[in-house]
Amino acid sequence: xxxxxxxxxxxxxxxxxxxxxxxxxxxxxxxxxxxxxxxxxxxxxxxxxxxxxxxxxxxxxxxxxxxxxxxxxxxxxxxxxxxxxxxxxxxxxx
Length: 94
Prior knowledge:
By secondary structure, the protein is α+β, with helices and mostly antiparallel strands. Helices cover 27% and strands 23% of the residues.
């Protein structure tokens, strides 16, 4: 917040995996956004650090997120924080 104006937010939660997976539960960063005027100031990283601390304090060891490949700014931001691409989701219009 800047004064009483919201300039960004992060939405995260704990997800449970199916029993067949090694990782039973993980943190999921569902959404994060910063107003254009305030981007590139480390705000997303600060929000991420709050989320990561909450998840770690809750016993979570892994955090996932999903980023569209066309969203180069978000990809760069999450990679800078330390996220690595693990898989690709593919889609085809039929």
